[in-house]
Write a structure and sequence with these properties.
The protein is of the alpha+beta class. It is about 20% helix and about 30% strand. The protein has a single domain, classed as Roll (SH3 type barrels). The protein has 2 helices and 5 strands.
């Protein structure tokens, strides 16, 4: 079993424009229960994690250098 991607790209934000920016990379947190419900736990613009519809995001498989750069932002 492979790990789910840690980062996702926002491709939709209908109803959540204040919380999610289109075409922005967000950190995903693993939440098995949410996944079964078609939701994804994402750290949004507030800096807190919330549930959003899965289809708002596409998974990103990033090379190691990009992952290191994103981790430094935190």
């Amino acid at each position: 079993m492979t790990k789910p991607p840690r980062f996702v790209l926002c491709v939709r934000n209908r109803g959540y424009a204040a919380s999610l920016d289109l075409r922005k990379i967000y950190r995903r947190l693993v939440d098995a229960k949410a996944s079964r419900l078609g939701l994804m736990r994402v750290v949004d613009e507030s800096g807190e994690d919330y549930l959003y519809p899965d289809d708002f995001f596409v998974p990103l498989r990033l090379p190691p250098a990009a992952l290191r750069a994103l981790r430094r932002r935190r």
